[in-house]
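Submission sheet (multi-component)
Chains listed below:
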Amino acid sequence: MKLVTISGPPSSGKTAVLVNVIKSLRASGLRTGAVKYDCLATDDDALFRSLGIPVQTGLSGNLCPDHYFVSNIEECLKWGISLNLDLLVSESAGLCNRCSPHIKGVLAVCVIDNLMGVTTPKKIGPMLKFADIVVITKGDIVSQAEREVFAFQVRRANAKARIMHVNGITGQGASELTSLFLKAPETECLDGGILRFSMPAALCSYCLGETKIGMEHQLGNVKRIKIKQEQP
Amino acid sequence: MIEILEKKIGHLTAEFPPLTGFFSDYGITFNDLHATLGDSLDLLPEEIYEDMGIDREKLLENLDGFLQRITLSEIDEMPSVSDITIIGGHDKSGKLEQVELTLVRGSITSIVGPTGSGKSRLLADIEWMAQNDTPTGRTIRVNGKQPDPELRFSLEYKLVAQLSQNMNFVMDATVADFVFMHAESRMINTIDTIVTDIIVQANLLAGEPFTAQTPLTALSGGQSRALMIADTAFLSSSPVVLIDEIENAGIDRKKALSLLVRREKIVLMATHDPILALMAEQRLIIKNGGIHKIIPTTTREKENLFQLEEFDNKLLALRTRLRSGELIEAL
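Outcome: structure written.
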């Protein structure tokens, strides 16, 4: 079975892009399934199900969605294989821009949109910088020039990725993206697999439920802001 | 790549000034200008890489890609496009499209057909340089030949630039700053001249003038469209320009089209406005996902165009009168 990981900031159009890709995969007779990782709530499972494909939903709740993803992706892979799927897409929301859900040897896609502003690509970490394909959406509502500048900034943040423009509403570009999904490598097992980059670090007292503010309550992996003194 | 690692930071940034910006994007500033790039990168603590969300290898890969662009080697290799040929596939019912249509630089073709008839798909086929591998089965040739499939993913070699009624500027910048940024991303040497040219040309197209210091988001619909067209004419590397219905207010459409033609663009225009449609040399009738017919604009139609423009001018004059507070009792 082929596995594809899709990530991207909230509301960038991941699901809209995937819906179009799934339609196009279905048209070519392939059995596709989807896993949606989200944080608090999602309606996207119903959307995927309405396309007639099997879906799993994972809500990370108060855990880092990225860590939740990596602890559960193997189980989801097994589920997909047990259903004899040809391709499984795993969609996860990139909440902190430092997310890093991509796995070595598994096709990695990042979805970002033109409305985020030209400085955004450099502010997005591994989910963009280590992706194989960067999909740019919402190109139909900004100017050609802004699209070109934005794509240039993406290129600066990730020199080797394929950059694709897809319109999540009309589906323009989706069949082209699908042709790249079809070239994804086969993934039969993730045991022993390696993330392309380390995930955001955690483990401080606040991870464990601390709510009080103050030095004495801060334990574990704590990082300090460097306050710069303005010269008078 | 290895040579670059052995160069001193001070020399590198003097040779390629944009490099300073490249590194500062990653939050890296080098203090010792006499140290080599390789040594400086080795000295960066692991923690910094972790915070940046990138490792040394990937950073060097991006640096290599960036250098290739600023040294223009990538752009030099791009073949120039003199014409594009669309070889028909089939419509939605599988009926063959009996078409082999070559579009040359500096020509205008209009595309007509109801919503959902397949206008966007035609454009997408051109943009993707379809090789009988899209739902329509069409094939696109560039300069009469099959294009290198890798070019599909090149940023410099996008065949189609698009311009539609729904597009707006969303960036928080002045007109001049923005056009400058666009020119910079295209690695153009004569940035200042081109910025001035674009603003002058855009003002010739726009009904109401704007300056270099006007914020992008304060431009009216017509002014935005005018700037988009002038910018595309001068700065877009794409040989094909697709225009999706430009409104008749606040922009001189005739001048806009002639600017694009002067800049040797292949203009495709999805429109149901008779004036725009007749300005084209030919029009493609799209039906059920296929090119149903190609109609060259007839001499009679061209004569009618003259009359249509008179109607149009009358309407525009009424608009101006309305704006200046006159009564419209006498036409």
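Remark: The beta strands of chain B are 83-87, 100-104, 108-112, 139-142, 160-164, 240-244, 266-270, 282-287, 290-296.
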